[in-house]
Write a structure and sequence with these properties.
The protein contains eleven helices and eleven strands. By secondary structure, it is α/β, with parallel strands linked by helices. Helix 2 links the parallel strand 4 and strand 5. Helix 2 packs parallel to helix 3, helix 5 runs parallel beside helix 6 and helix 8 packs parallel to helix 9. The protein is globular.
């Protein structure tokens, strides 16, 4: 997600202090939506850089303003192409009880085989569903992870991603501090993610320039485009629908102009929490993508105080049902401790509703030693899960272990 941290380096000591005061907020991604269409790869790329949005945060009544995901410490639409329908035609069976003599013989029609899924260079969004590059529906069940200077300790970035892969997650949103990680470091991580049959979201932090516009970055990301999703527009750091609507469309056009063909994400107004903004303007924003290969994100960090539920007029179950009813491709971001002052969120209800409706989600976040409220692990390893981690990754009926399926049927 784009945030002020993308444009400034943060010292490890200061970050640690900030993180202990912040709750985790982020997530996205992405992608399980609910249509039955498949996709074809006939579009040509052309577009955008993720516009980073910064502004003063809104002060919501009854609670402090939301804290953007990437403010946590991180150290020193519908596609125009569809595959053929998958339905098979039933075979006709001969009528019973006809005699061999003089009886009309009914013709038997052999069942037609379902067309094979269409393979594409990139993943695709069709209707309200995401498809992998093998043409199969893909429902995101993953986590987010900031990577930076001493995050994790010892800068073993690949080792931490290996731990994420071992959970069975089928997706990971990587937020690399590109003032610390080189293009080669990011390349190594993405290569490993692809080898595991996972999908990678990418959102660079602390970039002093337009990271996506760099020739070395473009060439590197091109190698991984079959399983890559780019955050074109992260959580806006304000509550202003008019500004958000304009900036989101501009970001899509800019990123496609850079030549990227992979799916993009755009998050809702008000730090990603303003779900109704997606219902009101989501179709318009999706239409701004020349390749029609974008999906939307709702950061479902609605705590148990009920502020957002009352403000927007939805319970959590009603919100997920409204997503389904909208027909829009909307993915959830989940966490446990939401806005300051710390408020618990009913993530279990959201996980169950998402599973029942084929809606994707990403968890914020897997491991952050400087802001541990939502960590799924105590130390970055799967050997020491937090109570929340055991629930989200293993024990809950809609946990990653019970529901995640890797890309391309792996």
């Amino acid at each position: 997600m784009k945030s002020v941290l993308r444009h400034q380096s943060v010292g490890i000591t200061a970050l640690a202090a900030i993180a202990l005061a912040l709750s985790a907020c982020s997530g996205a991604e992405g992608a399980a939506f609910g249509a039955d269409d498949s996709v074809s790869d006939d579009a040509t790329p052309s577009v955008t850089d993720t516009a980073s949005s910064t502004a003063q945060q809104p002060a919501a009544p009854e609670q402090s303003a939301p804290v953007a995901r990437t403010e946590q410490p991180q150290t020193a639409p519908e596609s125009r192409t569809e595959t053929p329908a998958r339905a098979t035609s039933p075979a006709s069976t001969p009528a019973r009880g006809t005699s061999a003599e003089g009886a009309a013989t009914e013709e038997t029609t052999a069942p037609s085989a379902a067309p094979a899924p269409v393979h594409t260079r990139t993943m695709r969004v069709v209707g309200n569903q995401l498809f992998d590059s093998c043409g199969q529906p893909f429902v995101v069940r993953g986590v987010e992870q900031i990577l930076g200077n001493q995050l994790p300790q010892g800068n073993d970035w690949l080792g931490l991603v290996r731990q994420i892969a071992s959970t069975g997650a089928n997706a990971v949103r990587i937020l690399p501090g590109v003032n610390t990680l080189t293009t080669e470091n990011v390349d190594e991580i993405l290569t490993y993610v692809g080898e595991q049959g996972m999908v990678a979201f990418i959102d660079p932090l602390n970039s002093p320039d337009d990271w996506y516009a760099r020739a070395d970055v473009k060439a590197m990301l091109k190698k991984h485009e079959s399983f890559l999703i780019i955050d074109a527009y992260g959580e806006p750091q304000y509550d202003d629908v008019v500004k958000w609507r304009a900036e989101a469309k501009e970001a899509l056009v800019h990123m496609r102009s850079l030549g990227y063909e992979v799916p993009f994400t755009v998050y809702a107004n008000q730090f990603g929490r303003g779900l109704p903004s997606l219902f009101d303007y989501g179709a318009e924003i999706l239409a701004a993508d020349p390749l029609h290969n974008t999906f939307l994100g709702w950061q479902a960090y609605w705590g148990n105080t009920g502020y957002y539920q009352e403000h927007y007029g939805y319970s959590l179950e009603e919100a997920v049902q409204a997503i389904v009813d909208s027909g829009l491709p909307i993915q959830l971001g989940l966490d446990h401790i939401t806005d300051l002052p710390s408020t618990e969120a009913d993530y279990g209800t959201l996980m169950q509703a998402a599973e029942a409706n084929g809606v994707g989600w990403l968890w914020w976040d897997f491991y952050n030693p400087y802001g541990a409220e939502n960590n799924l692990t105590e130390d970055g390893s799967t050997d020491n899960l937090t109570a929340t981690g055991a629930d989200v990754l293993v024990n809950h009926p809609a946990s990653i272990a019970h529901t995640a399926k890797l890309a391309c049927g792996r």
